[in-house]
C-alpha cells in the first residue's frame, strides 16, 4: 500500500495541473508559487512532463485525423496570402494617397482648431470685459463728476460703484486699487464740499448788505402799495392810476407777488412797465453749495458735524454783523448799512430754514434773533444818543420802522424795536426842543419889537393867514395901518405849528393809537412852550440892554400869543382827530407860559423904570445947608418927570392894570428913594431952606401924580404913593408937633404915615444944624426956647419909640412863648 503522504501530494499536483490548464496565463504565477513552496516540485515536474506528453499524443492524433483538411486549409491559406498581399498593397497605396490628400485637411483642421480656441478665448474675454466695462465707465463718470465739481452725483456714483459693480469683479487687481481709493475719494469729496461751504459762507457775508438792502426795498415798496390801496381802494391794479400815484409821491411803486415759503418769503417786485425784477436772496447768492454739502455730509453719515459747523460759523458771522461801526451815528448811511447787514443775515437764515430740512431750526433762529435784538437795541441806544440833528433822528426812526417791518414780514418779533422807538421819541423831542430853541432865539433876536406895518390888503391877508388875529376896528382902518404885535408873533406861532408837524412825523408808522399820538404831541408841545419858548422869552426879557419899548412890545406880543393857544388846541385836534374833551387828553400850558413871560416882562419894566429913576436920582445935588429954597423944583427931578411922562405915553397899548401898576410902582419907588435920600447917613445936617427945596420937588411929583399919566386911577390914588413924604414934610414945615404927639396912634391922626423913628432922625439932623449955626443965638431967648422945644420933641419921640418897642416885644412873647429849662411857659 502506498503511503498517505504521497497520495495527498499526487492529488495536489493533479489539482495544480488542472488549474494550469484552465487558468489564464496572466494568473498562473500564484499557482506555480504554490508548487515551489512545497517540497515535491521534482515529482510535480515529472507529472507535468507526463501531462505534456499526453497532450502531444492527443494533438498528434487530432492532426492525423484532420490532416487533409489541414492541407486544404494551408493551400487556401497560401492562396489567401497572395490576395492579402495584393490587398495590402492596395491598402498601402490607398493609404498613401489618403495621407497625401489629408495633409491639407489636417492643416485646415489645425487652423480651425486654433480659430476655435481663439474664438473661445475672445468670447471669454468679451464676457469678462462686459463685467469690467460698467465698472470702468462708472469710475470714469466718477472722475468726470469730480472734475466738474458735481460732488453729490459723484458721491452717488461712488456708492453704486462700491456696492453694485465692484463686487462682481473684485478678483481683478485694478478693482482692488479702486477699492483702496474709495475712502480717499470720499475724503476728497468731503474736503471739496467743505471748501465750497466756506466759500458760500464768505459769499453770504459779502452779500448780506445787498440782500438786506433788497429785502428792505421790497418791504418799502410793499408798504407803499398797501398805503396806496388803503387810500385809493377803487384804483385797483390800473396802470394809469398807479402811475399818477407814483408821480404824486415821487416813489417808484411796483407790483409785488409773494413767493412760496420755500423761497424764504422774499418778494419779487416787478415794475408794470419795465418788467424789471428785483433780485432776491437766491438770485444774489448761490445756495447750491450749502445744499450739496448738506446732502454729501448726510450721505457720509456726518450730518450732525456739518450742522454744528454751519451753526457755529453763522453765530460768529452774526456777532461780526451785530458789531456796529464806531462812527455809525454820524450819517444815516452808517445806520442803513448796519440794518442791511442784519436783515441780509436773517433773510439768508430764513431761506436756509425753509429750503433745508433740519440744517437750522426755529429754536436756533429764535436764539440768534434774541441775541441780535438785544445787541441791536443796545447799539441803537448808544449811538442814537449822540445824534443832535432832529432830521437825522427822524430818518433813523423811519429806517428802524422799515427795518422792523421787513423782519416782521419774515416772522421775527419786533415789539422791542417799537418800544425802543418810544425811547428815541423822547430823544427826538429833546433834539427838536434844542433846534427850536435856536429858531426862537433867532426870531427874538432879529425882531425889531415894533408893531408890524401893513401897506396893502395882500400883506394884511398874508399875516392874518400866518396868525389867527381878528380885530374889527383894525380891519376898518384904511391902509397903511399897523398890527399891535411885532413880527415875532406870527413867526413864533408858525414855528410852533412846524414843531407840531415835526412831532407828528415821528409818530407815523409806530402803530400808535390816535389818543397816544395826540398825547405825545401835546406833551412835546407843552415842553416847547413851558421850557424852550419860556426860556427864550425870559432870556430876552432879562437882557441888560433891553429897553422899555421892547418890554412893552413883549407884553403885547405874549398877550396875543396867549389868545392864540386855543387855535393851537384846535390845530392839534384836527391833525389827530382826538377831541379835547376826551378823557386823559393833555391840555396845553401855553396860557401859563405866556402869562409867566408877561409877568416877567412886567417885573422887568418895573425894575427898568426903577433903575432909570435911580439914574436920575444919582444926578440929585441938594445943598442941605441952604438958607433959602430955590424958586422951582430941581432940574434932575424935572427931567425925571418928563421921562416918566414920555414913558407912560408908550404904555397906551398895554393892558390897563399893567400900565397902572407900572406907574404906581414907579411913583412908590420914587417916593421911597426920595425918603432914603432925605434920611441918608451921609446927610448929617440939613436946614429948613433945604427942606423947603426938597418940598418943592415933592410937590412936583405930586403934580405929576395928579395929572393922570396913566388913565384908570380913581381920585388921588396915585398921590398916595407920596403920602409918607407929604405928611413928614408937612409936620416939619408946619412944626405941628403938638398935633402929632397928641394924636399919635389914632386912626384919624393927621400924620398917621409919619414914623417916630423917621421923624426923630430928621429932627436930629435939624437940631445939629441949629446948634452949629446958632452958637451965639443961644443967648437970645427965642432961640433958646426953640432949642428947648426941639429937645423936648426929641425926648417925646424917643419915649414913643421905646413904648412902641416894648409893646412889640410883648406881642412877640404872647405869640411865641419862650422855652425855659423848667419847661414851656
TrEMBL record:
GO terms under cellular component: exocyst; plasma membrane
The Exocyst complex subunit EXOC6/Sec15 C-terminal domain, residue ranges: 416-765
Coiled coil: 45-115
GO biological process: Golgi to plasma membrane transport; intracellular protein transport; vesicle tethering involved in exocytosis
Domain Exocyst complex component EXOC6/Sec15 N-terminal span(s) in chain numbering: 47-216
Keywords: Coiled coil, Exocytosis, Transport
Signal peptide as annotated in the record: none
UniProt entry tagged with the keyword Coiled coil: yes
Pfam families (alphabetical): EXOC6_Sec15_N (PF20651), Sec15_C (PF04091)
InterPro entries: EXOC6/Sec15, EXOC6/Sec15_C, EXOC6/Sec15_C_dom1, EXOC6_Sec15_N, EXOC6PINT-1/Sec15/Tip20_C_dom2
Family classification: Belongs to the SEC15 family.
Function, as annotated: Component of the exocyst complex involved in the docking of exocytic vesicles with fusion sites on the plasma membrane.
PANTHER family registered for this protein in UniProt: EXOCYST COMPLEX COMPONENT 6B (PTHR12702:SF3), SEC15 (PTHR12702)
Entry protein name: Exocyst complex component
Lineage: Eukaryota, Metazoa, Chordata, Craniata, Vertebrata
